[in-house]
């Protein structure tokens, strides 16, 4: 039986991580639809979703054939590296070392790149626009797929993690359709901070499981690892730039 202590962090990590990626993909697709029309935007989006579905269907049998401990170890290492990358960037942004990600600025850049140019044919530009939407869906979608597999594989949590990711997609789509503009007010860096903490915690947990470590408290070790990463992250951020850390604490 799946314990709440394991299911809750898995669903939360999948939801928050997917939310960040879907917001970024939505911003690009919105720029394509607004500037070049919704036909190329929807064509590129549909093609990207089809490719993601094929990838997921292809990965399923491969994961089923892998020994459980080997799967946990591989996913744990990848998840730890992935989570630490997110956490590092979030810490640097919180400390003011690198600028915060701005969805409005990203939208402006994409819209400018897709604006009609008298020297280019409109039909050719529509194909480029569809390709831009396709690339956004595939690249951001692959990260969503990885997050779901990483936090869900090996412990029967693929369905809860998948539902968390689906909920994030539906929420971004619903809000985006209502406001019809980039979701620039989403505290993206804070979300990435939290996701980096949770993914890193799962990474340590799964890596240990793959190596045969019997964690004290078993599933309860996950939130303890997350708390440890959060404390270290906040402390490190304050050491790098105390004023920046107070202004953008997660």
Automatic annotation (TrEMBL):
Listed A to Z, the keywords are:
Membrane, Transmembrane, Transmembrane helix
What is this protein's name?
Membrane protein
Species = Devosia riboflavina
Give the source's domain of life in one word.
Bacteria
Transmembrane helix listed as a keyword: yes
Higher taxonomy: Bacteria, Pseudomonadati, Pseudomonadota, Alphaproteobacteria, Hyphomicrobiales
List all membrane-crossing ranges.
12-35, 42-63, 69-87, 127-151, 157-179, 191-208, 220-240
Keyword Acetylation among record annotations: no
């Amino acid at each position: 039986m799946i314990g709440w202590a394991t299911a809750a962090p898995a669903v939360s990590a999948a939801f928050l991580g997917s939310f960040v990626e879907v917001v970024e993909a939505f911003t690009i697709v919105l720029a394509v639809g607004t500037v070049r029309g919704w036909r190329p935007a929807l064509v590129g989006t549909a093609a990207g979703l089809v490719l993601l579905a094929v990838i997921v269907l292809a990965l399923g049998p491969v994961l089923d054939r892998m020994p459980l401990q080997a799967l946990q170890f591989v996913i744990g290492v990848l998840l730890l590296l992935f989570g630490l990358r997110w956490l590092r960037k979030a810490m640097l942004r919180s400390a003011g070392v690198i600028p915060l990600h701005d969805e409005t600025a990203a939208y402006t850049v994409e819209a400018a790149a897709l604006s009609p140019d008298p020297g280019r044919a409109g039909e050719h530009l529509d194909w480029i626009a569809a390709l831009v939407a396709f690339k956004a869906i595939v690249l951001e979608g692959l990260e969503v797929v990885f997050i779901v597999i990483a936090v869900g594989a090996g412990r029967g949590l693929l369905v809860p993690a998948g539902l968390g990711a689906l909920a994030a997609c539906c929420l971004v789509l619903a809000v985006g359709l209502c406001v019809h503009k980039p979701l620039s007010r989403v505290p993206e860096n804070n979300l990435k901070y939290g996701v980096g903490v949770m993914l890193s915690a799962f990474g340590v947990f799964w890596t240990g499981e793959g190596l045969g470590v019997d964690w004290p408290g078993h599933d309860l070790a996950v939130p303890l690892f997350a708390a440890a990463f959060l404390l270290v992250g906040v402390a490190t951020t304050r050491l790098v730039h105390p004023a920046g850390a107070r202004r953008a604490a997660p």
